[in-house]
Specification:
Layout lengths: L2 E4 L5 H12 L3 E6 L13 E5 L5 H11 L4 E4 L14 H29 L2 E6 L12 H21 L4 E8 L7 H12 L7 H14 L7 H13 L6 E4 L1 H7 L13
Parallel strand pairs: 1-2, 1-4, 2-3, 4-5, 5-6, 6-7
Helix pairs in contact: 1-7, 2-3, 3-4
Amino acid sequence: MKTVFITGCSTGFGRETALYFLEQGWAVVATMRDPATSTLPVSEHLRVLPLDVTSADSIAAAVAEAGEIDVLVNNAGIGWMNAIEGTPMDVVRRIFEANLFGTIATMQAVLPAMRERRSGVIVNVSSSSTYKPLPLLSVYRASKAAVTSLTESAALEIAPFNIRARVVVPGMAPSTNFAANAQEQIAKGGWFPEAYQDFADQTMAAFHAAGSGDVTTARDVAEAVFRAASDPDCPMVLPAGADAITWATGGCTQEHAGDQG
């Protein structure tokens, strides 16, 4: 039985991905900052461990407790929507710490063992916002674009050790907590600068309107992650969900300015 180690499993994509791997007969190590909040079902093939991807000690402890890891899924991250002018540098650093640096640190933690075994897969979750410039997502988009670039280059470095790296790119998924988390982060870091307020209101309205269309489900993402983990012929960058596929093939439009994937 293979083991998958997944970050950010408390809700949304991470939780659904953990459930999907369980359904496929895998052993699952589902990690989250507070395991006490887990709503995952009890299973002899599931372990729920604490993990804060912004803490080196937390990463080391979780990886050590997990034991042999066949697949790492870097899903943990936080959202952010604001004009660049309204994003304090401490918030910029917080976004990159969770979305990019946490991904790097977790990869570094599992790669030595994978390299020694000459076997393993790393799947990093990026964002369909990387397919086209979008307003109010500059910092978030930059962090996720970096995840994609990181994975593409790292894949070349680790391929000689029979380790694969892939990127899953979710589309818009209103069933996740992205919008709520982004709003929470905005409240902590300051609202839109007054000069941008009208523009921000229009953009947020477009964001909510886009959520009523053909958008990505958490199951779409889980299935894409599983394919990336189990199919050696999977593309390097794999869009997840009908809208993400549309964006990836150049069919995106400005009316989807609220895309949160």
